[in-house]
């Protein structure tokens, strides 16, 4: 039996993970001297309110290895394989925590995969891997397919400000843009496990128009694109974008995801992101 383990950076709602039977790990939000799990203790709406009003910038902490122990104890039994699909190790310590916890189970078949991504695309990989496991696919094939799918993902996003990425140390190759952003709105991408700049526009409206052009350039015109819109307190914009993509690309569905606190702390309010998979 193969068990897929995920965490909240996948944007899968906690209740959905529970219904699917996917063991689910929270990220930790730190605001001053207070800490919160972002599965049951701090939702996106509450977090954004705190982010806008807190005198100190909230921080994130990877889930401690101790949160993985009970999952490994329950599922890492003879005959079972546990596959942890972790967000990019370049922006999150989740991979390392899962790895440290696995060291206490030397005889168990536990595989931690650095998916090199984060957000809705990671959520798609988790759901697909879970389906493959439920259908009886072996662990080696699942890991290989996850890596192949991950390599085909594209993530573009527009932020209102680079302030949060900069202060949180998650700005990656977009560092070069800091200091020149008074009059521009950058289009960024999540590539090779980190944030990279694409180009800049003078207004957010133009940035979103350009983002759409980038998506139209190579997004498949079918539902296997698993196109998803992610946002932080920008639901109406996300809904408009989803309808345009459905109409232009002939898609029957476009998921709209609230970004979890562990991502919002770096992207900030107003962020809009698009994730999809190119043709295999």
Automatic annotation (TrEMBL):
<dbReference type="Pfam" id="PF02645">
    <property type="entry name" value="DegV"/>
</dbReference>
<dbReference type="InterPro" id="IPR043168">
    <property type="entry name" value="DegV_C"/>
</dbReference>
<keyword id="KW-0446">Lipid-binding</keyword>
<dbReference type="InterPro" id="IPR003797">
    <property type="entry name" value="DegV"/>
</dbReference>
<dbReference type="InterPro" id="IPR050270">
    <property type="entry name" value="DegV_domain_contain"/>
</dbReference>
<protein>
    <submittedName>
        <fullName>DegV family protein</fullName>
    </submittedName>
</protein>
């Amino acid at each position: 039996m193969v068990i897929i383990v995920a965490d909240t950076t996948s944007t899968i709602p906690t209740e959905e993970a529970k219904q699917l039977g996917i063991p689910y790990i929270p990220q930790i939000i730190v605001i001053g001297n207070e800490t919160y799990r972002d599965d049951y203790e701090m939702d996106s709406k509450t977090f954004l309110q705190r982010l806008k009003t807190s005198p100190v910038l909230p921080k994130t902490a990877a889930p401690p290895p101790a949160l993985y122990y009970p999952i490994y104890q329950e599922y890492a039994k003879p005959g079972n394989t546990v596959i942890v699909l972790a967000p990019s190790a370049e922006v999150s310590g989740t991979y390392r925590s899962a790895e440290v916890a696995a060291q206490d189970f030397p005889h168990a078949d536990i595989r931690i995969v650095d998916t090199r991504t984060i957000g809705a695309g990671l959520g798609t990989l988790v759901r697909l891997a879970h389906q493959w496991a439920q259908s009886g696919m072996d662990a080696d094939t699942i890991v290989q397919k996850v890596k192949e799918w991950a390599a085909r993902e594209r993530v573009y996003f527009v932020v209102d400000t680079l302030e949060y990425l900069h202060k949180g140390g998650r700005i990656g190759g977009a560092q070069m843009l800091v200091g020149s952003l008074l009059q521009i709105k950058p289009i960024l991408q999540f590539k090779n496990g980190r944030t990279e700049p694409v180009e800049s526009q003078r207004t957010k409206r133009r940035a979103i128009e350009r983002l759409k052009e980038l998506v139209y350039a190579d997004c498949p015109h079918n539902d296997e694109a698993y196109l998803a819109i992610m946002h932080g307190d920008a639901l109406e914009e996300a809904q408009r974008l989803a309808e345009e993509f459905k109409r232009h690309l002939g898609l029957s569905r476009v998921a709209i995801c609230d970004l979890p606190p562990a991502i919002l702390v770096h992207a900030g309010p107003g962020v809009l992101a698009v994730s999809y998979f190119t043709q295999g």
